[in-house]
Design a protein that fits this description.
The complex is a heterodimer of chains A (about 260) and B (about 300). Chain A is of the alpha/beta class. In chain A, about 15% of the residues lie in helices and about 35% in strands. The chains are: A alpha/beta (about 260), B alpha/beta (about 300). Chain B: It holds the Pfam family DHO_dh.
Chain lengths: ~260, ~300
Amino acid sequence: MIQQERMIVVRQSEIAHHIFELTLQGQIVQDMNPGQFVHIRVSETFEPLLRRPISIANIDKETGEVTLIYRAEGRGTKLLSQKQVGDEVDVLGPLGNGFSVETAPEGGTALLVGGGIGVPPLYELAKQLNARGIRTIQVFGFATEEVTFYEEQFSTLGDTHFVTVDGTKGTKGFVTDLLEELKPEFDVFYACGPMPMLRALEQFYPNKEGYLSFEERMGCGIGACFACVCKTTDSTDKDYVKVCSDGPVFPKGVVQL
Amino acid sequence: MRRLTIQLPGLELKNPIMPASGCFGFGKEYGGLYDLSKLGAIMIKATTVETRLGNPTPRVAETPAGMLNAIGLQNPGLEKVMANELPWLERFDVPIIANVAGTTTEDYVEVAKKISTAPNVKALELNISCPNVKHGGITFGTDPVVARELVEAVKAVSTVPVYVKLSPNVTDIVEIAKAVEAGGADGITMINTLIGMRLDERTGKPVIANGTGGLSGPAVKPVAIRMVYDVYKAVSIPIIGMGGVSCAQDVIDFMSAGASAVAVGTANFVDPFVCPNIIDALPAKLEELGVKHIKEIIGRSHR
């Protein structure tokens, strides 16, 4: 159930260059699932006006805390990065349909592929897959070393591989270069990152079950404004899907890439 | 809550607050958040004869205290709206104002004729002001003669009162308002969005794929207030005012300028509970003003 709540800032710190880790506490954490997102109003004024959609990186139902990892790049996220411990933040959520943890076969292996700020939602996913006895292989691509994060946290969950475009950390290149080299054995893959990465993965693993998480400019975040639509591959049923309410996670092959 | 009731052609409103067309879909998303029976009315998303896919993305861009959108009238088409969307809304005790759009006069007439027969559609809102489609829409709303003729054609087939949604993208909005009144319009809704553009800082090119978009949000409120103020003086049919409404004071302002009811648009995206919140806040506003019934403030700017 979608709710609006004034959540409390528990912690906030810059964990990489312009990358912030924000922990909020509130009731709505109890309803959260991996791959879902929250829609945050960063200001009490009209500036900026719209909410900011941010993915969920870690859910702790015991403490009622959710951790978000985001890049402070635009006006909105920069304001969010200035929130102090104890501040209240207007949060709408949880929104969208997350990753399906159940479809991974028990005792099987899942490949998690993330690009840049698409990596965070894969952390909660990896935790929940591990809890179900599913092994995770994690391959993450970043632009450069200074924007990488969570290496230690991911390493405790499964084989973790980093790749950077400039080669400053891990191997040099894109995630697909590394995947070609690693040739991982797996049953299902999950991915979140830029469109070219998602497209490459679909072409890379045409016969594997896969789930992709998309990003698009949003208005309302709940499916009413039709801003964040994507074309589908099959136009017999629906020509467009809404990233916010039909997604952000779609089974491979649904969205036209 | 008796002090908030408003009677308009075709519409018995519990209160003067309704979500604006295009900002509320067909109600399903918000219906999952609160009881839609609380609303005065609902202006559903524009309906065209055929299914429309809308414009390419990006479709929205944020601007200072506002946003630009160029959705492009995406909707499932008349048949599906009649079969699925309107029946679903019947579970709520709320009148529906159906926004009617098209490319030709015949399109408007066809949609109006059929959609006005739906049991919960109590009024039509003729969309002659959408700035985001290449044909139809705004082209009907910028020429007083064309606008009047369209209203006459639709009035001839509609079984419910017809309101006309005016575009602010004209030299003289009063002239258009008078023309649609002469054509037999039962009311006016105003304003639609203002055509605008935002450029990408890096490339210098428009952010929105459509190039231009419609500006909405608090930034447009002074423009809308001025236009409602001027049109109120020139016509005798009621006005449903809108443009940047986000709190109870905005409602008071629009009604003071001459609106009999008020629609809330972009603010629904910022706070999905904004409509019920405004409705709850209105009685205290009336207390502050020493007013017994909200009707008393309609047009008070002019007295």
